[in-house]
Design goal:
The protein has 166 residues and is mainly alpha-helical. The chain has 11 helices and no strands. Helices cover 77% and strands 0% of the residues.
Length: 166
């Protein structure tokens, strides 16, 4: 196990990059959730109707959630190894996603919000699932912040220039 953590810390920038990338992709899922599922529940109308290609892209992004949870959990477990207690909250936020993935699923939420019901679970659990989904936001912010901190000071402008090119 010591060899793993030694490797992990030696490649910290790469590990933070992967965690930040995978969790940042979840913003697409949260956008869909807000503009389709929640909007339909609150206003009776969806503000998001993607073309078939984008529906498949959404599904693909959804499948990145498991690697995102695993990679980001490792990031915070490593912090705990170094005595950083603040990481406990992030670990709870991230790993509550398992509850949402395997019990209170997006399908359940959509069924509840579109009037389907069809389950013995109470409807308020749909709002719990949405809250769990949005617990990803502090983790996204933290992983992106960590990624930015790993970039040497003078290299930030070089990286931004590359992205600014047409």
């Amino acid at each position: 196990m010591i060899r793993f953590w030694t490797w992990y810390e030696r490649h910290y920038r790469l590990n933070v990059f992967l965690a930040a990338l995978l969790f940042t992709l979840q913003l697409i899922h949260l956008y869909w959730l807000a503009t389709d599922v929640i909007a339909f529940r609150l206003f009776g109308e969806s503000f998001f109707s993607p073309l078939p290609f984008w529906k498949y892209a959404l599904i693909a992004v959804d499948y990145t959630e498991i690697p995102a949870i695993l990679s980001t959990s490792l990031l915070y477990i490593n912090d705990l190894r170094h005595g950083k207690k603040r990481s406990i909250a992030y670990l709870i936020f991230i790993n509550s996603q398992w509850l949402h993935l395997f019990w209170i699923t997006d399908e359940f939420v959509m069924e509840q919000f579109r009037g389907g019901g069809g389950t013995v679970l109470p409807g308020w659990l749909a709002w719990v699932a949405i809250l769990i989904d949005y617990l990803e936001l502090p983790v996204i912010v933290d992983t992106v912040r960590r990624l930015i901190k790993t970039i040497p000071e003078g290299d930030m402008w070089k990286i931004l220039r590359v992205f600014g090119r047409k």
